[in-house]
Amino acid sequence: MNHSEAHEEATVRINNLGGIDERTVTLSPGVTVLTGRNATNRTSFLRALMGACGSDAVSLKGDADEGSVELELDGRSFTRILKREHGRVSVNGTPYLQDTTTADLFAFLLGSNEARRAVIAKRDLHDVIMAPVDTDAIETEIEQLQTERKQVESQLESLESLESERQSLETKQASLESKIEDLEAERDQLATRIEEEDQTVEAQRENQAELDEVLSDLQSARSELETVRFRLQSERDSVESLRQERSELESELDSFDAADIDHEDVTARIDQIRTQIESLNTTVSELQTVIQYTEDVLDGKADLVEDTLTADDGGAVTDQLLSSEMITCWTCGTEVERDQIRQTTDRLRSVRDDQREQRSALRRELDDLESDLRTAEKSQRERQQTRQKLGRLEDELDRRTDQIASLTEQREELVERVEELEADASDLRGQADGDLIELHKELNEVEFSLDRARDDLAAVHDDLEALDSKFDTRSSLEDEHERLTADLEDARTRIQTLTESAVEAFNDEMETVLGLLGYDNIERVWLERVERRVREGRRKVLQTQFELHIVRESDSGAVYEDSIDHLSESEREVIGLVFALAGYLVHEVYEDVPFMLLDSLEAIDSERIAALVEHFEQYPAFLVAALLPEDAQALDSDYDRVTWGDGVTSAA
């Protein structure tokens, strides 16, 4: 899984951050070992690198008003700039990540890493694994999907109720088509008989000149009537085609997201969120500075009392600071217990975490609002274009509908004109032509009935077309219902799948690591996913938890379950690291950030540190481990090394 081949060298330039004045370090893909004694700013380098990635762990040097870190990677540059103004530190720049929640938890594994500390402090590990997951957003998504699916089901049910209406129209359509076919056949027969009769009585006609004139007018009127009928049918066909196109455009218009947004309100909210995020950045940075300094003092990695740490035996002073149960508070000058300082630091860390969570929520809201704004603007443009096209089509429909009305009126006038001319011709022809005149009348009645039948059929076509446009959506509605059902199932199982994957990853990695490190008295360490009812307000709810099991083997070979409290510090640290690695794999942190950082491994012996580094290096592109010189000696000599000490860094 190693991703080192996907990256080039990374260059980190630091100025006035943590305890570093100015440093430039180049990291090659693979493992880089930072070697040096305590209080040589190795951790400051790691925190600066975290800052370049977007973490709030970075802090401004105490005597500086401005500091920065720049990360150059794969031809791109990422920066973080800290400025002190009016007693507050602001943070700006373009970091590698916008949200480092998962990286802070599972990739930046310093001594204060919360995933590591959660194991040691026996916190609910399920909450740690799920911290990057917005469960409220998933619940909201489930509710939204349920609402959408109900709407689709309602539309499908309404289509079922229209089925009988459609069948009735189809029956009427078939009847009219059969009637039109019969009338057309009757018309053709009458036309043939008229032609035969006309030839028979031709020689018997009197008043031929006047009759010829009337017959000529009759022929012209009939020809004009036929032309009007043809134009009328053409216009009807055009109108039917236009209505079909209109139906398609209306469906396209209905497919647009109807949820318009208030651009002014959204823009104002975006500006407000950005201001809040900037304020939270400053607050989190200041809290992190206090927390970091406190941790460094408690761990012996920062100067507490300048004249004490300038003594000849620096190592002895550090040992004294670490071993003493009392410490001089650097804020009030009184002596307090270390545990009291740690409790206060934990409270500050909780406040910082709340601020981070609030900032993450704001960032997600900002992303959603900006996406909604872009989508709404695009939808508005497309909707406007469709409306304009629909408007032009409606104008064309109106024009042709008016034309149909005008042609229908002309047809009625011509029918009356033909009837008048037929009556005149009948008078001029006399009784001999009676049969012929009667045939003309029958033909005219058939033509009239044919026109009415065609009008009725056109109306049925319109009604069927309106229904068909609704039924055309059935397939897409069924597909949408299937998609919503699948999405709903996915949303409902997403959290469960993630927790199950975390348990599996931890158990697999733990088994592998225990085999590598050879803790003889530990038989097995494993996580179990359990469901427990816990009180939430006035009611009890089912809650998922992770239960850590530690199985030991006694000298006699008996197997028993033990508590993490009875493990050595080395064993507890290893379990914490493996738990963080499980989160790293489950959340696929390697896809977001190429770095994994290791620090505060002194409790683990050097041989096991070497085995851990070798195991961890298969996952990130860059693995940077801060080690004491004696621990670093046990690692593979092929690893890149950067030596820290006496204010100087050197690459080996």
Automatic annotation (TrEMBL):
Leader sequence segment: none
Keyword Coiled coil: yes
Coiled coil: 135-290
Region ranges (Disordered): 370-394
InterPro entries for the chain: P-loop_NTPase (IPR027417)
Keyword vocabulary terms for this entry: Coiled coil
Assigned protein family: Belongs to the Sph1/Sph2 family.
NCBIfam families to which the protein is assigned, alphabetical: ASRP
Protein name in UniProt: Uncharacterized protein
Organism of origin: Haloferax mucosum ATCC BAA-1512
